[in-house]
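pasting for the record
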Amino acid sequence: MSGIKPHAAHWGSFDAVVEQGRVVGVRPFHRDPHPGPLIDAIPDVVHAKSRIDRPHVRAGWLRGERRGAERGDRDFVPVSWDRAIRLVAEETQRVRAEFGHPSIMGGSYGWSSAGRFHHAKSQLQRFLGLGGGYTNQVTNYSYGAGMTLMPHILGTNEVIQGPVTDWRSILRHTKLMICLGGLPLKNALVTAGGAGAHEYVPWLKQVAAAGVRFVNISPFRGDTPDFLDAQWVPIRPNTDTALILAMIHTLVDAGLEDRGFLATHCTGWDRLRPYVLGETDGTPKTAAWAAAITEVPAETIRALALEAARLPTMLTATWSIQRAEHGEQPWWALVALAAALGGIGKPGEGVMFGYGSLNGMGTPRRELPSVSLPATRNPGGLSIPVARVTELLERPGEILQYNGRDIVLPDIRIIWWAGGNPFHHHQDLNRLRRGWNRAETIIVQEPWWTAAARHADIVLPATTTLERNDIASSSRDRFLRAMHQAIPPLGQARNDHDMLADIAEACGFRDRFTEQRDEAAWLRHLYERWRQACARFGFDAPDYDTFWAEGFIEIPPPEEDFVLFSDFARDPAAHPLNTPSGKVELYSETIAGFGYDEIGGHARWQAPEEYLGAPLAARFPLHLLSYQPATRLHGQLDPGRVAAADKIQGREPLLMHPQDAAARGLANGDILRVFNDRGACLAGLRLSEGIRRGVVAMATGAWWDPSPEQGGLDVHGNPNVLTRDIGTSRLGQGSAAQSCLVEVERFDGALPAVTVHDAPRPVAEPVA
């Protein structure tokens, strides 16, 4: 194969340049106004040394070492596809028969591919559902706590996932935009389902040119780009709730709360107001009170509140704000502040979440579906919040409380993971590995030898997107993109659908799984379903052959601005919210009725166990923030040139204020040992005046590379060896990764090699 092939990834649409069956370069999609640099790493990762060349089985598993076995020892035996399929089918049928369907955990995450057919999570869940059922995962790591909370408070998750009030409305109506967590540019590099157009930066520049004033409330000045000229409010991490409550107090004290809106559009103000004023607990939530907690001057807090009352204001928070202990509280409080300002549902005003968390959030878009594989029912019907995977593995038979439900945790015997790496997403990786090893069998479908593959028993090599045909589609993007196969599969790699079809055949349900369609037939079928759905929304899409030949479809933008909750704002009786009261629930009887002491019935300040105001800070005086990198998507692209160029002696950088470094005798470029009671990793020191004192920050996604010779020290720089694995609360049970204290010291020993980007050496010759 040679030539130019249209393709797409979560980090952008592109054309693959192919010579003699090898991807040698990429070119940005010619309609993308602001393409990012991540596509430059594609040739490296497609042909990386860490590609899995054929099926492998752990030698210990073949010897009968199952539950409790120590995995990650890399003793893999190459096997044929026939044997691998037979082993998987037999083990799956045995476990279903002996322990029941919920004893299989079907794990994955949605970032495996921008392609909607070869989407590993969808394919695996289709297979496991048709096979009888499995234990599934709900919510996500990105905004799991918020997506559980918001239906109780605002009746929808559109305020998080979109469509949110669009940039065009903000440009025309907003005068002040207060941004908790800022509006980071790095997150705008990616769009779930692929981006034909990176429009985040162009829209931000237009909004800035229109004269909107921005405020960046974040420990990191770089969370807003320089061209916004934003006011930086360097808040102490995890204290946003206190600041927001103090802003509400300022409004009430000045008599500036919108009493009409609170009376007609909200319920629970009579419960929240006494708390804010200190009538219920004896502590008025004044600006001075918040200043002691947040280390933001009281005059700054008061000035922001008064300015917001005077000007049309949009309040927003990034998804990362709720990834903390009590993470539901700042989002709930921000809704309350928006209600007190009376802006919810007004053009350019109110509250939205995630503008700075993903490309496409706020981009004007038509109401059209995206291409997708039809969902498959899970007959077992059991699901747990995704961030509670370790608890699932640790506590079989015990109760997990979540969102008013008591979930009896099953005894997991098989972990089956496709298209994702839990040793990237999850917290406290050493604890995860201990829970992981409780399973009898771990099956992983993966193109690369990630930590998940290295900790598996049966490893099935999957193709990358460049080795198959697909369709990239996102409801947040105005382009539909054809993904033409660019090269033949490398080694013995197979796409997830084909390998699962063969396993389904061995289990007796191939025809139900494939519906007697191959890849080409499925793509045509999914496209035609989408085309018919678009017609119902008034969009006439071309036929499949035209689309495939031209390589893309552009969907025109809407003619009018979109303002979320506008109908509700105009007439709350005629257009109630999908909440029990039909109004904004500043106090939720439902949540209060769950009896969770740590959440309460309204937003409130609760000090986390790990933050700079906690006793633990005496031992670990630095607050570690872990963030989405600018050089890859989660752990994807880590073996590529873009990620490698940003590392320091091959280690992930750690940002630190120069004064914190000087106090420890550290210099820019030093290799550090970053540690707490949960673990330790290496990092390269990068000094920055733009991070507040007492805070350090590392990107996630450096592949976990624990060294047995170094006592399990991660020699590469994965911050999730340090983050705490607790739920935000029993309500949301989301990730609390941002509540994490550490200390650092210079690493003066011989620098260990990073080996995780190499394939493990097999222990035996291929066997039948």
